[in-house]
Each structure stands twice: as structure tokens, then as C-alpha cells.
Amino acid sequence: DGGITQSPKYLFRKEGQNVTLSCEQNLNHDAMYWYRQDPGQGLRLIYYSQIVNDFQKGDIAEGYSVSREKKESFPLTVTSAQKNPTAFYLCASSLKRTRNEAFFGQGTRLTVV
Amino acid sequence: AQSVTQPDIHITVSEGASLELRCNYSYGATPYLFWYVQSPGQGLQLLLKYFSGDTLVQGIKGFEAEFKRSQSSFNLRKPSVHWSDAAEYFCAVAASGAGSYQLTFGKGTKLSVIP
Fold first, then answer.
1. Which of A66, A78, B69, B110 has the fewest Cβ atoms within 10 angstroms?
2. C-beta of residue A93 within 8 angstroms of C-beta of residue A32
């Protein structure tokens, strides 16, 4: 089955640690996105990538980093510079021809302990 | 830049009643519009989308939405709500310009259904 796989589903991080969230898609989509979701805030764009080896900052990129070495993969690293990392993180992808219709993974809940 | 407003944070309806969730957008040109649904702890599922043409669009699970350019609205409707419709609903807008890939989301409306 085609889809987007995020792992892990739950992640706990200690203060000062970097953690990496995985996102893999087998939909052959060109564009991939990372969103952060907080209660009552909707979804806010962290980073997006339209093509391999290229990515752009979204609205709240500070404290995050990404890479796009393969079309299928778009990992997100939450660095120690992110002051409030506890949130639900959603990865999405879209195929250019379908005009931004995005397909979402099941999310990763990150908690700082 | 585009933006989306969902005026209702939380709506409660009785099972079998009709439903309308409001969405207003701001965008200079013709927008691409979407409604997504999210169950707790899950990802988002696309309910329906509007790109052009007929302003009344049908989606999955019996939902429909109407694009009204004059009101900058894209309200979601369902004639008869089922208990399984309880979830959070997000309206989103995408720029229609070439090379633009960003979706902008509203803050969501949480729907509760009374049996």
C-alpha cells in the first residue's frame, strides 16, 4: 500500500538533546512538508522541500533542521535550540500535478522530559 | 500571503442533526481550497477539495462544501451527522500560482456529537 510512514509514533527527549523524526513516502511525490501542531493552533509549517537536495524554511523553522537526500525521505531534526519542542509533528507529501493536495502521515508526538 | 479563519473553535450537535462548519479565506487570486478531518492522535484525512468549476463539491463520508467567492467562504456541510463524525476539522487554502506548494491551515473546529 502506498502512503506516508512516520516513526516513531511517540518520542521522549531530554532537555538539551537533539532528536530526529523519520518520514518516508512511497507515493512518488515530489514535495514533502513538516508541520507542527499544538492545541488550538492548527498546523504551522516548519520546512518544505519541492525536490531532492533542496528545501525551504516555513513559518517556524527556528530550532529545526531537515535534509532531503532521497525523494522518499524527509527527516526532521529537533535541535536543542528549539525552546518548546513538545508538540505533535505531522509529515505530508504532495504531487505537483494535483495542485497541492497533501497526504499526511500518522504523526509523531514528541515530549520533552 | 494567504490566511484561513475558522470562527468556531468547538461545535456540539446531536446525532442526526445537520452540520455546517464555517471557513473564510484570504487570498488575492482564485484559491485552491480543502477540508481535512483529524481524529485524536491521528494524521489528517482529505474530505474534499475545490480547484475550479462547480462551486458545490462533494466529498467522502457524505460531506459537501460550497465555494462562495463573494463571501470568501468555503463552508463544510453534512445533512445528518453520525457519532463517528466527532473529530477536528481543518480548512486549508493553497496558492494557485505556479511553483507554490504551501498549504495554509485554519486553527480547526472541534466537533462533538451527542448520541
1. B69
2. yes
